[in-house]
């Protein structure tokens, strides 16, 4: 991975010279970073064109593209049409991922631990402090839960992963909604912070009896154990690709509102509750640069589905990809043929 990151030119020197060279630069969400790295590597091999992506968090991506520092920003928090107009940005989804609640709990296997949605929020509120708390024990009668304090791990940076996770928490727990709310950066009631999905992953890995939230690709990469949660209607649902797809099928993105939609807590008996799209942001005035960006994502839409699936993401449906291509044409930023 280190070799790949170096190849992609993540140094400040290359980023500063991006506009002078025939390469495109992007920055933002850590959530989709593994698949963007993979796509960029394959795209360079296939076309000779370079993509320089910096995994700095959604907040950083929005800021950098708003300041016109990079060619494209990446955010797991979709921006509403009014904000896009104010910042003069276009927006479209690139891939779908899922956020899983991971735990470092000796003796408990992957997906063996059940956590009610409201209890996940209570853990992050600091109301549930120990692993053998009655609220957890009642849903896990066959498990030997230790009387150990739960070490809560969260993001320390502006994060689209946090936006989607807090959106989920606010819709399953009134105390969270009233006292913490939804956002990319929060005033966390308890816990320790890590930068990016990578930082949270490292803290959970190093800290026994910890709990955290990361994109599913980071679960696979780190061989984490993840909790079984609940559907919107309260049925137990495991964090698997099939259950992610069951939720993702309810996406109803369209070009009229620049594809704005939050996918958490979709209906259905098998819909995993924390599925999220991740989005690309483009400066409206940079038509020629935007064509180079859309050429990369058009290539990825045609050639990158297998890589996305292998990494644990859900490729966009063909119908959504066609809507995105029409959106590009509508705004004059479709790639040159």
Describe the overall structure.
The protein is of the alpha/beta class and 337 residues long. The chain has 2 domains: 2-95 and 252-259 and 275-330, Periplasmic binding protein-like II (D-Maltodextrin-Binding Protein, domain 2, 3-Layer(aba) Sandwich), CATH 3.40.190; 99-248, 3-Layer(aba) Sandwich (D-Maltodextrin-Binding Protein, domain 2). Helix content is 40%, strand content 18%. The protein contains 15 helices and 11 strands. The strands form 2 sheets. Strands 1, 2, 3, 4, 5, 6, 7, 8 and 11 form a 9-stranded mixed β-sheet that branches. A two-stranded antiparallel sheet has the order 9-10. Helix 3 (33-47) links the parallel strand 1 and strand 2 (50-55). The longest helix is centred in the C-terminal third of the chain and has 17 residues, at 287-303. The radius of gyration is 20 Å and the shape is elongated. The two termini are 33 Å apart. The model is unreliable at 1-21 (pLDDT under 50).
Brief description of this entry?
The protein has 337 residues and is of the alpha/beta class. It has helices spanning 2-7, 12-16, 33-47, 58-66, 81-87, 117-125, 134-137, 160-172, 174-179, 196-206, 216-222, 241-248, 287-303, 305-310, 318-330, and strands at residues 23-28, 50-55, 72-75, 89-104, 151-155, 192-194, 210-215, 225-226, 229-230, 236-237, 275-283.
In the CATH hierarchy, what is the superfamily of the largest domain? Answer: Periplasmic binding protein-like II
- Taking pLDDT < 50 over at least 5 consecutive residues as the criterion, the unreliable ranges are 1-21
What is the residue-mean pLDDT, rounded to a whole number?
Answer: 93
Measure the end-to-end span.
33 Å
Report the sheet with the most strands, covering strand number, pairing sense and barrel closure: 9 strands, mixed
**Strand content bin:** 15-25%
Q: Tell me how many strands there are.
A: 11
Strand-pairing-aware structural class? alpha/beta
CATH topology of the largest domain: D-Maltodextrin-Binding Protein, domain 2
Number of spatially distinct domains? 2
Order of helices and strands: HHEHEHEHEHHEHHEHEHEEEHEHHH
Radius of gyration: 20 Å
Number of helices: 15
Name of the level-1 CATH class of the largest domain: Alpha Beta
> What portion of residues is helical?
40-55%
Shape: elongated
CATH architecture assignment name of the largest domain:
3-Layer(aba) Sandwich
């Amino acid at each position: 991975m280190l070799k790949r990151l170096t190849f992609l030119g993540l140094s400040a020197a290359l980023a500063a010279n991006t506009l002078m060279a025939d390469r495109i630069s992007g920055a933002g969400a850590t959530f989709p970073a593994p698949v963007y790295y993979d796509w960029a590597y394959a795209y360079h091999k296939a076309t000779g064109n370079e993509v320089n992506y910096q995994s700095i968090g959604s907040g950083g991506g929005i800021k950098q593209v708003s300041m016109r520092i990079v060619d494209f920003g990446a955010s797991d928090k979709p921006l509403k049409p009014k904000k896009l107009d104010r910042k003069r940005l276009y927006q479209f989804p690139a891939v779908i991922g899922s956020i899983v609640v991971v735990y470092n709990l000796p003796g408990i296997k992957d997906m063996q631990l059940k956590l009610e949605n409201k209890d996940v929020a209570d853990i992050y509120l600091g109301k549930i402090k120990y692993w053998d708390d009655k609220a957890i024990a009642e849903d896990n009668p066959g498990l030997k839960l230790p009387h150990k304090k739960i070490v809560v791990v969260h993001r320390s940076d502006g994060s689209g992963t946090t936006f989607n996770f807090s959106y989920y928490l606010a819709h399953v727990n009134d105390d969270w909604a009233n006292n913490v709310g939804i956002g990319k950066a929060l005033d966390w009631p308890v816990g320790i912070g890590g930068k990016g999905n990578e930082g949270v992953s490292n803290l959970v890995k190093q800290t026994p009896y910890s709990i955290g939230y990361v994109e599913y690709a980071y679960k696979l990469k780190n061989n984490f154990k993840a909790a079984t949660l609940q559907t919107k209607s309260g049925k137990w649902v495991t964090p698997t690709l099939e259950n992610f797809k069951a939720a993702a099928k309810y996406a109803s993105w369209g070009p009229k509102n620049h594809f704005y939609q939050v996918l958490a807590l979709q209906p259905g008996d098998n819909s995993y509750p924390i599925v999220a799209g991740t989005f690309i942001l483009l400066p409206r005035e940079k038509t020629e640069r935007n064509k180079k960006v859309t050429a990369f994502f058009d290539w990825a839409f045609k050639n990158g589905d297998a890589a996305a699936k292998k990494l644990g993401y859900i490729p966009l449906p063909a119908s959504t990809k066609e809507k995105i291509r029409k959106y590009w044409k509508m705004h004059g930023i479709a790639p040159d043929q």
